[in-house]
Amino acid sequence: xxxxxxxxWTGIQQFPTATQNKLLELLGKxxxxxxxxxxxxxxxxxxxxxxxxxxxxxxxxxxxxxAFQSEGLRPMMCSRSRAGFTxxxxxxxxxxxxxxxxxxxxxxxxxxxxxxxxxILLYVDRLDVYRVDNLDRQVxxxxxxxxxxxxxxxxxxxxxxxxxxxPDGLGYDDFSMKRSEALLKVVRLGARxxxxxxxxxxxxxxxxxxxxxxxxxxxxEKILPNGTAWIPNLVKTITDVVSxxxxxxxxxxxxxxxxxxxxxxxxxxxxxxxxxxxxxxxxIQRAIKDDxxxxxxxxxxxxxxxxxxxxx
Length: 312
Prior knowledge:
312 residues
């Protein structure tokens, strides 16, 4: 694969000054921790706002977004550099087609990611979806089967379409909390994460509004109905996850293809052979020798051996 073209991150200049300063401060903290490259993998179902979120983070339209067109099947990586720091964002096609996991798209994603290191997974869904179902669980399982459980230690859940009025008279924060809890429960079930695993760490949830109807504050920063400036909050969450002490995910051939079934249990072979020799073969040999020793020999054999008495 040809090396990725890295361009200057000019899109950051499209943000309000307050947002620019916060982003540069957050990325500067990563540089102080000797993190000079950050690779973000964006995954989820189709039509949830993955590409729009990529565009919002970079401050430029790098991923095509159209409500009336299906997503392309090929992932896309955009690389931007600023003050010695490189930001890579990988946008991927939706993982669901016709109500089922799109295995073809998943296979393409896996091959695209070969030999890359994933610093954080952004799992994208919508805030304005009121229920979770078995399909959500299947998507989580597909991601887990591909990258392993450890990917969720390096993950954040992104809920788009966050500029909304909650139903049933719920407060905005109450509604977003209930939606977040329901989705995080599906993540734990789909990834088969047990209670004792990932103790002391939780998957953060970030609310996002990519549309032009998002409100702004006095500094022209895009804010949610609860007043949160969401772009700096999203980047802060990303840097917090990257700095949480977990390991980045290296996508190698073994990870993609999984363990070789022919290698399963190979380390037990010497133990099995040793057991068979000492507890089976040796016992059989001993029994054969005992049978030979106790066997009644015919008279002619004893006579030839000089053990039989001669009769006169």
